[in-house]
Amino acid sequence: MPTWPKQTPSQMNAFYGNPDANGDFKADPQWESANIVKIVPPYQLYYPQQSGKVVKKRAMKFSSLRVHKKCASSLLNILAQIGNNFTPAQIHDYELDLCAGVHVFKLKAGGTTLSTHAWGAAIDLSHLINGWKVKYDPNPAKKMMPPGVVAIFASEGWTWGGKWKTPDGMHFQAADL
């Protein structure tokens, strides 16, 4: 199992490199070209599109995901295990085929430091059901993040946000708290 850095700017930068070395709050193009790679998910992922109050859940297909090269093989393994351990119907029902992004240069929600997404070391899955600040409910009827998915990520050393003080059940990261 890989050992990931602590989720502090200094440890993230030491492990993944600094995505904003000049401090202008823009992703550094040289850092991106040296560190961010594209992976093809082993099952189809979608990004929902919203028009007014209508959400088209599976409107935009991802042909690839942009992720840091140090966690690319780990994320591919995780997604392959999800694809192998859950039926297509389960993936659809739990919305494990909905992805809100991997490498996205942004601050932590409600924070002042970079999100692990800025390093390409996080993924948000099933974000419409498992939203930020939504308390996790293990009742299978709620169709929230299945424990089996959490276990698959944990087997690769990824941290799940669903049990945080401010829950973020969609969020998995290749960084420790």
Protein model, in words:
The structure is a single chain. The chain has 177 residues and is α+β, with helices and mostly antiparallel strands. The chain has helices spanning 9-16, 29-35, 72-85, 88-93, 147-155; strands at residues 36-39, 45-51, 54-62, 65-68, 99-101, 122-125, 159-161, 168-173. The strands form three sheets. A four-stranded antiparallel beta sheet has the order 5-6-8-7. Strands 1-4 form a two-stranded antiparallel sheet. A hairpin with a 6-residue loop joins strand 7 (159-161) and strand 8 (168-173). The protein starts with 8 loop residues before the first helix and ends with a strand. The relative contact order is 0.19.
Features:
single chain, 177 residues, alpha+beta, four-stranded antiparallel β-sheet, two-stranded antiparallel sheet, 5 helices, 25% helix
User: Strand portion, in percent?
Assistant: 15-25%
Q: Can you list the strand order of the major beta sheet? A: 5-6-8-7
Would you list the SSEs in sequence order as H and E?
A: HHEEEEHHEEHEE
Could you estimate the helical fraction of the residues in percent? 10-25%
Q: Count of DSSP E strands?
A: 8
Gyration radius over CA? 16 Å
What is the average per-residue confidence, as pLDDT, rounded to a whole number? 92
Query: Alpha-carbon distance between the termini?
Result: 17 Å
Weakly predicted, low-confidence segments: none
Number of separate helices:
5
Structural class: alpha+beta
* Most strands sheet: 4 strands, antiparallel
Shape: globular
